[in-house]
Amino acid sequence: MSDANYLVARLGSTVFVRSLGLANMKNAPMLSAFLQEMIDQGARVVCVDLSACTGMDSTFMGLLVGFSQLLVPMQGKMVVVNPSEMNLKLLNMLGVSEVLPVVAQTDPADLEFVRIPANPALSPMQRMELIRQAHHHLIALNDSNQVKFSAFLKALESDMIKLRDKFPFA
Question: What sign does the dihedral 24-26-29-35 (CA atoms) show?
Fold first, then answer.
């Protein structure tokens, strides 16, 4: 499986997300749209299960940080559970584990999970903006992320300007 599918369940104000496969910038919009909808509907705790996640990129991790920060003023929280050794290493490397609780082994309640629908229809500019915001969340965590992602963000923002110039109404 090359791209993540997300299985989800809800129990009261808690949402469970299980990532299957690779969680990355390609499938981040579907997770973002789902989480925003759940928070709008009153979810205050998000539990992200990485037991079946084969890998993740910085966009996915930045998305988690952003939603975690969104939940704080609502007295909510996001928790990451069951990361593989490699995914835990990535979470630690970018400082994500310093702002998101990580629980090594847990088995969410016996819930019925369903698949999140396919990616929402986003314009190229909306997709680029989601990626840009996710990386700004990571850069805010620590100075080393600024160094790691500044060239990427500069290139992305340049591409966004070119796209705006080419399609000013996009």
Answer: negative
| 8 Å CB contact between 6 and 31 | yes
44 occurs within a structural domain: yes
Query: In this structure, are residues 102 and 113 in contact, taking their beta carbons and an 8 Å threshold?
Result: no
How many residues in total does the chain contain?
170
Strand partners, 21: 53
Distances (CA, A) of 168 to 20, 121, 130, 154: 37, 19, 19, 20
> In sequence order, what E strands does 35-137 have?
45-56, 77-81, 102-103, 114-115
CA–CA separation, 28 vs 119, rounded Å? 8
C-alpha–C-alpha distance, residues 69 and 142, integer Å: 15
Query: What's the pLDDT tens digit per position in 45-98?
Result: 999 999 999 999 999 999 999 999 999 999 999 999 999 999 999 999 999 999
- Supply the pTM of this predicted model: 0.90
Residue 23, domain CATH? 3.30.750.24
**Domain count along the chain:** 1
Which residues, other chains included, contact 67 with Cβ-Cβ below 8 Å and sequence gap of 6+?
A: 32, 35, 39, 46, 78
Residue 80 neighbours by CB distance under 10 Å:
25
